[in-house]
Write a structure and sequence with these properties.
This protein is mainly α. Helix content is 57%, strand content 11%. The protein starts with a helix and ends with a helix.
Length: 655
């Protein structure tokens, strides 16, 4: 700008030639440096790929030679520049800009070939779409080393962390005997898994092996449920199976027993439903007794998961009893998520698991999810399940919307896990573009997975306009495939000028926090593709009761009311402090502590145990002026109780 000002001055005539020369020089410096930096960035990204990856060098020989030529010339250019490091000399060398432009052109050709190569691999194993290019290249370059690829298994599967190898012969081992979940749970394969061929092919084989193994185990688990009343009670039976399938078998049995109870009611047995409710309550008590004992972390989580779903099953049957529902066709029963064993084809010998809710049906997908636990099912959860599954029934996407902390994303994930599906969560931002979104949709459609786009309305409006067309293409492909699932013609569709596969299990879900700053209003054509579901604050008393039962408390119903009354009053009567938290996360923390105290003193008063947990957990964070109010609230809810405070003698001495 200073040179331009000087040039415009009438006093610059004497050194006009010098001004013009420097203007040209600085313009060249600017142009060359932009090209230089671009070449350097692209070279740094591709150098370890084309020069260090043997797999890429073997698969892309011509492009490797092209990059090696660029690499040699680039290093020569950098050597020349280092001899005379002055910026003017380095950038104003004759023809330097053309050389750098040629480098960029050649590197772009290498990058295009690399992307086409990666795209071929992604189409073979669509879960590669959910990995970064760097992670994918690392997997491909180590394709002959299954132990190295094993480190990336957790990125490709929902619950699987890695495989357990048969450690025989020389490394690398090429035979796996089982799989570990991310939480540490182990499941043995139905037979040894031989790792053969290219990495993308044996990962496809691993996916099939996982599904075949779980199919076999659930059949065995269902058959052995007949022993619950004789040789092996359910609370001990569940030790024989992984958490996911122990729960699934339990849900299948509950569905069958409920249908049988409705048949008994039609046959004239008036007390059938009430008797069945008593059976469920008795089973829950047995699990509660077990959870109080000494268990491994894995077994405790498994028992708590089954209690969580059992309590919902109890509430459903109790509602039938109270409302005198006696027909299977009643909406109260039709709206429940049910599981049964059916033959996929009449000629099949083996039955598979079918999931049903209202008039929507789908086959269980057998994705290994591990021992992750499940959400407490409230009436809000039931409504969300119905809305999302009916959206799938209509070949639409689902859109839970509501304030933060209402469980939009978690409910979507929980439904996917209940159906044995892979659920991939994407945290949306204004940095996402239509190209990255297109790759995600290609991955979801070909893998048959569910995608949950969290905070979807943070994406820019101009990107959402293109995304609406991408979503419509995917949903239209599913709509065409539904009536003709076996027709090869409908198993593929054109997306971004590419022919890709589509699976019926693919699902697209968006969650939004309306009214927040920086959120975009969705275009009308995009809104029309998703079925909305309003999410409000969940029933925390019901959640608290369920979690207390899971921690081994018998008086959970009354204790949960006292618990939430205390927190509601504390929220309204105590001062507003930044560190105060009276929400669901704080509730879960206190309940875990209460569960530990209950297991330490299984015969103690449950009221005193809960009071002690509430007092000792919360008092340290209460400011001085609020302590009297908080103590008075606890004393009113738990009158005439003052259990001793837990003390750590070593810590007391240290303080």
């Amino acid at each position: 700008m200073d040179l331009m000002s000087m040039n415009a001055s009438k006093d610059s005539e004497t050194f006009k030639e010098q001004l013009l020369k420097w203007q040209k020089t600085l313009k060249t410096i600017d142009q060359v440096l932009v090209l230089w930096v671009k070449v350097q960035k692209n070279w740094m990204r591709l150098e370890p790929i084309f020069l260090a990856s043997e797999d890429i060098r073997a698969q892309l020989p011509e492009d490797t030679k092209r990059f090696e030529k660029v690499d040699a010339e680039w290093k020569g250019l950098m050597a020349d520049a280092s001899e005379d490091p002055g910026v003017v000399a380095a950038t104003n060398t004759e023809g330097r800009d053309k050389v750098l432009e040629e480098f960029i052109s050649e590197i772009d050709l290498c990058e295009k070939a690399l992307n086409e190569y990666l795209e071929q691999k992604k189409k073979i194993f669509p879960r590669f779409y959910f990995l970064s290019n760097q992670a994918l290249l690392d997997i491909l370059s180590n394709g002959n080393n299954p132990e190295k690829v094993n480190e990336y298994i957790s990125d490709c599967f929902d619950g699987m962390k890695n495989m357990k190898f048969v450690e025989e012969g020389n490394r690398p081992y090429r035979v796996a005997q089982g799989m570990f979940a991310k939480d540490g749970e182990y499941v043995q394969f139905n037979s040894n898994f031989q790792i053969q061929g290219a990495v993308e092919n044996y990962l496809c084989d691993l996916e099939r092996k996982m599904q075949e193994t779980l199919k076999g185990i659930i059949i065995e688990a269902k058959e052995t449920t007949d022993e619950w009343a004789t040789e092996k009670p359910r609370e001990l039976w569940l030790d024989d199976y992984c958490s996911q399938l122990a729960l699934l078998a339990t849900q299948i049995v509950w569905t069958e027993e409920t249908i049988r109870t409705f048949d008994d009611l039609e046959s004239g047995s008036e007390s059938a439903m009430k008797d069945f409710n008593g059976l469920i309550v008795a089973r829950i008590k047995k699990l509660i007794e077990r959870v109080r004992g000494k268990l491994t972390v894995e077994t405790r989580v498994k028992v708590i998961t089954i209690i969580t779903i059992d309590v919902h099953s109890r509430d459903v049957i109790k509602k039938f009893v109270d409302s005198k529902i006696v027909e299977q066709s009643h909406f109260a029963w039709a709206s429940q998520l049910k599981f049964g064993m059916e033959k996929r084809n009449p000629k099949d010998d083996i039955k598979q698991v079918m999931s049903t809710i209202c008039d929507w049906k789908t086959w269980y997908n057998y994705e290994f999810i591990g021992n992750t636990g499940r959400l407490v099912i409230t009436p809000l959860t039931d409504r969300c399940y119905i809305t999302l599954t009916q959206a799938l029934n209509l070949s639409m996407g689902g859109a839970p919307a509501g304030p933060a902390g209402t469980g939009k994303t978690e409910t979507t994930k929980d439904l996917g896990r209940a159906l044995g599906l892979q659920v991939v969560v994407f945290n949306c931002s204004d940095q996402m573009n239509y190209e990255s979104m297109g790759l995600i949709f290609m991955g979801l459609s070909q893998a048959g997975a569910w995608g949950c786009f969290d905070e979807f309305n943070r994406i820019k409006i101009e990107v959402l306009s293109v995304v609406s067309q991408q979503v419509k293409l995917c949903l239209d492909a599913i709509k065409r495939l539904k009536p003709n699932p076996a027709n090869v013609q409908f198993q593929q569709f054109l997306f971004n000028d590419e022919l890709i596969a589509i699976k019926l299990t693919a699902g697209y879900f968006i969650t939004m926090n309306p009214g927040y700053a920086g959120r975009t209003e969705l275009p009308e054509n995009l809104k029309a593709l998703f079925r909305s579901c309003a999410m409000v604050v969940p029933d925390i008393i019901l959640i608290c009761e369920n979690m207390l039962m899971a921690e081994g408390f018998d008086q959970a119903q009354d204790l949960s009311k006292k618990f939430m009354t205390l927190y509601d009053l504390a929220k309204s009567l105590l001062s507003q402090q930044v560190h105060y938290d009276w929400g669901l996360r704080a509730v879960k923390s206190v309940l875990r502590q209460a569960g530990g105290l209950k297991r330490a003193d299984p015969n103690g008063s449950e009221y005193e145990i809960l009071m002690r947990a509430l007092r000792d957990f919360n008092l340290p964070k209460i400011v001085v002026e609020d302590r009297k109010i908080f103590r008075d609230l606890i004393n009113d809810l738990f009158p005439n109780m003052d259990p001793p405070r837990a003390q750590n003698e070593e810590l007391e001495v240290a303080c």
